[in-house]
Write the structure tokens for this entry.
Amino acid sequence: MSGGEARDAKKLVRSPSGLRMVPEHRAARSPFGLDEPPWVPDKECPRCMQCDTKFDFITRKHHCRRCGKCFCDKCCSKKVPLPRMCFVDPVRQCAECALISQKETEFYDKQLKVLMNGATFFVTLGTSDKSELMVCRLSNNQRYLVLDGDSHYEIEIIQISTVQILTEGFTPGG
């Protein structure tokens, strides 16, 4: 096994939330990964944190795998893939987290592929009012957003606080 293969090795881990396929080395983790949240302790949630239904022998308590909060089955019944936490199978999530996970999956399946190849955008940095036409792409290790235009920037993904899509289907200069 070469050094690169050893660094990229993964192991199957059983967590309270389900089976996960995680990188053996922390350095191989994606910057888009999420850590499993701590679960709200059972004794701290006698009622559903969404609909306020009291938990009892019939109404069981479930934890959302994404946020860790306690919900009844009605409020936490969706099983949705959660690749950002390396889960092998879809996992139980509350409605709010399931929607976020579904949108993230769409982003990874569609927009991320565009960003790996590069795409042209109008970019406004910081509090500036001026937009610049730039080719944006992710670095090969997905740790940096590379912006090339009149200026050149390499921005570490974890430093980006917000991204706003103003208009879909807009062609620059069109």
Remarks:
- The beta strands are 10-15, 18-23, 62-63, 70-71, 78-80, 91-93, 119-123, 132-138, 144-148, 152-156.
- The first strand starts at residue 10 and ends at 15.
- Residues 31-115 form a domain with the Herpes Virus-1 fold (CATH 3.30.40.10).
